[in-house]
Amino acid sequence: YKQLDNFPANFLWGASISAYQAEGAFDTDGKLLSIIDKYLHPEDVANFDVASDFYHHYKEDIQLFAELGLKAFRFSIAWTRIINVETQEINEKGLAFYQQVIDECFKQGIEPIVTMYHFDLPYFLEKKGGWKNPETCDAFLTYANVLFEAYGDQVNYWLTINEQNTMILHPGAIGIPENGELPSKKELFQMNHAVLVAQAKTFKLYHELNLKGKIGPAINLTAMYQATASPDDAIAAHNWETLRGWSFLDAAVRGKHNYLFEKYLHDRQWYPTITSEDTLALQEGAPDFIAINYYSTATIAASKNDGSDVSARAGDQQIMLGEEGVYRAAENPYVGKTPYGWVVDPTGLRLTLRKLYDRYNLPILITENGYGAPDKLEEDGTIHDPERITYLTQHIQAIQEAITDGVDVFGYLPWSAIDVVSTHQGFNKRYGFIYVDRTDHELKELKRIKKDSFYWYQQVIARNGLE
Ligand code: BG6
């Protein structure tokens, strides 16, 4: 293009966090335990008990977000603060906390964007089988009802489930169950189906309530490249793209499981039990938009069929191998990497957005994207994070290119608004515009300090895009 289109005037420039990674206060004011509180996590890094203590700092933090110029702030609600799933009692203190967060957002002119479920299943449900137990689906609907009743007339953007595909394909990424055993593949795909049904019923419930806002799923979506021009690599790459991304979204958006995914499950005896009520539920619920978390692309080659196939997600080799006979991950010489080994590929975001829009033609909200690094607090109190600024600049440019291509992207909410605990790599892996002064092992005063990227993003938002 000779010239790029401008970002729309009402583009939602924002940033994201999740409850368990930011709030801390893990047992305060009636909050019950979630799987995150009980699962096993690496012992040498921070746990989630205090995190960034957003629970006690939310006012100060949202004021900083206003100074940053955020138009939108994405946070998740902890189910375990809202309902005691055992007694069905509602915890008024939990409801009041999120009401204060929402009030503070509006007071500061920030649009709250709410994730209903970000990895933190109530532990009581987990003990009863978690998503393998149909009661969990009913419990989720009860929870959804409570949220819509409390905040439905205020919140304009709802996200149902964060990264269902991570939960199912990389279950160990959010912790290991106490007995050290991850669910079997068959169990995981039964859980997957249950989550999809719960989500579809939530879409339907939301629309029946005639609320003024919009609701959508939030998937981790990643475009892929085939490693070579080999036709076998092309089939493997298509396998990967379907099984890792489209299969989740096809069910959520089209209301029907993807054909290749169904065949893949049947062939391995992993096909879930699906009732006719489930089939109907999937058909009846549909989203208004699609949210994606985008970090990296993958490069995929044909399986070697010898057990050496590796996963396309850095750090997860122990958790999920490539699928023998289906695909394996390959290196891509054309992309960079973060200090944590995650592929950096801004053009991959443009490609991901195009493919997503091609396939479903729904508006797109980018709910995560960011650069994890061990930032350093200098003696003079500054934090220089030029690599994060470069990463975000390049990704914002890619979004602008996608908008110029004609893709309907209506917001960008990088991960993370403020430093939070990483899913399994502790507090040293930071993503925020605002530094939280603590380490993995020392809480210090949890002071908030603006990074260089804070001042840079402030300018981006003020100008409605890059210079
Ligand atoms: C996404 C999750 O997968 O990636 C976030 O939704 C997570 O919860 C983010 O923090 C970055 O991953 P990590 O492992 O570096 O914290």
TrEMBL record:
Gene Ontology MF terms in the entry: beta-glucosidase activity
InterPro entries given in the database record: GH (IPR017853), GH_1_N_CS (IPR033132), Glyco_hydro_1 (IPR001360)
Any single biological process term in GO: carbohydrate catabolic process
Example of a GO cellular component annotation carried by this entry: cytosol
Keyword tags: Glycosidase, Hydrolase
Annotated SUPFAM superfamilies: (Trans)glycosidases
Keyword Amino-acid biosynthesis: no
Family: Belongs to the glycosyl hydrolase 1 family.
Name this polypeptide is given: 6-phospho-beta-glucosidase
